[in-house]
Amino acid sequence: MLTIKDLHAGVEDKEILKGINLEVKPGEVHAIMGPNGSGKSTLASVIAGKEDFEITKGSINFEGEDLEEVSPEERAHKGIFLSFQYPVEIPGVSVTNFMKTAINESRKARGMDDMPANEMLKLIREKSELLDIDRKFLSRSLNEGFSGGEKKRNEIFQMAMLEPKLAILDETDSGLDIDALRIVANGVNKLKSKDNAVIVITHYQRLLEYIIPDFVHVIHDGKIVKSGTKELALELEDKGYDWLKKETVA
């Protein structure tokens, strides 16, 4: 589904990613870990097409298509979803209206008509029940006055509604207490299938107790320096990142 080869990317004159190689297949969950400033969020932004970052070398292919010239909107329509670490507030636009617009824009990009209102309401009802979301929540302005847990749950609701092929969760566990973390993780687990894939970016092993990864990759200084299974995340929890940094230097 996703193939990244020797990816170098940065912002202005600063190189952040220094040769990332990664392959993600349908049905897989990949966790990306690493210390602050290692390039985790930059990788997520570059896959999603954030225009602040420039690719200087290498390639990103999604379902066989080179993404370098593909806009963020087109990437979203092709099935790439990014859950933000810090979702923005949009006063005056309800969660429901935002979702209706997003879904219909994606349908339009695929040459389809708008989703009929009764189908849309049915979908909203099904997904909100799946994620235990109060219907009153859906009439509120997008992220305005939301707690950290509500913002993250709303991101997972968007993911449920859009049904992306590749979901990238950028530090979804950031700032969540254990109950909110469990709710968000349960939502992700309910949405996983053999046809989609998930990349989870996190600092902490605790999220991976709820979302079990098939692979764990550690980024340090813009490169993936070690890959493994969930046991690697447990090792990082126990030892921290210093041993990996020393290994890399050696």
What key phrases describe this protein's structure?
single chain; 250 residues; alpha/beta; Rossmann fold; six-stranded mixed sheet; 12 strands; globular
Describe this structure in words.
The protein is of the alpha/beta class. 37% of the residues lie in helices and 28% in strands. The chain has a single domain, classed as P-loop containing nucleotide triphosphate hydrolases (Rossmann fold), CATH 3.40.50. The strands form three sheets. It has a six-stranded mixed sheet, with helices on both faces. A four-stranded antiparallel sheet has the order 2-1-4-5, with helices on one face. Strands 7-8 form a two-stranded antiparallel ribbon. β9, α6 and β10 form a beta-alpha-beta unit. α2 packs across α3 and α5 runs parallel beside α6.
Compact description:
With 250 residues, the protein is an alpha/beta fold. The chain has helices at 40-48, 72-78, 95-109, 117-130, 148-162, 178-191, 230-239, 242-249; strands spanning 2-11, 14-24, 29-33, 54-62, 65-66, 80-83, 90-94, 141-142, 166-170, 197-201, 215-220, 223-228. The strands form three sheets. Strands 6-9-10-3-11-12 form a six-stranded mixed β-sheet, with helices on both faces.
User: Biggest sheet: strands side by side, in what order?
Assistant: 6-9-10-3-11-12
Termini separation = 34 Å
Give helix % range: 25-40%
Indicate the proportion of strand residues.
25-35%
The major beta sheet can be summarized as:
6 strands, mixed
Number of domains: 1
What is the succession of H and E elements? EEEHEEHEEHHEHEHEEEHH
Number of strands: 12
Q: How many helix segments?
A: 8
Give the overall pLDDT as a whole number.
87
Assign an overall shape: globular
CATH architecture: 3-Layer(aba) Sandwich
- The CATH topology assignment is Rossmann fold
Low-confidence stretches: none
Task: Please tell me how large the radius of gyration is.
Answer: 18 Å
The helix/strand class is alpha/beta
CATH superfamily: P-loop containing nucleotide triphosphate hydrolases
- The top level CATH class name: Alpha Beta
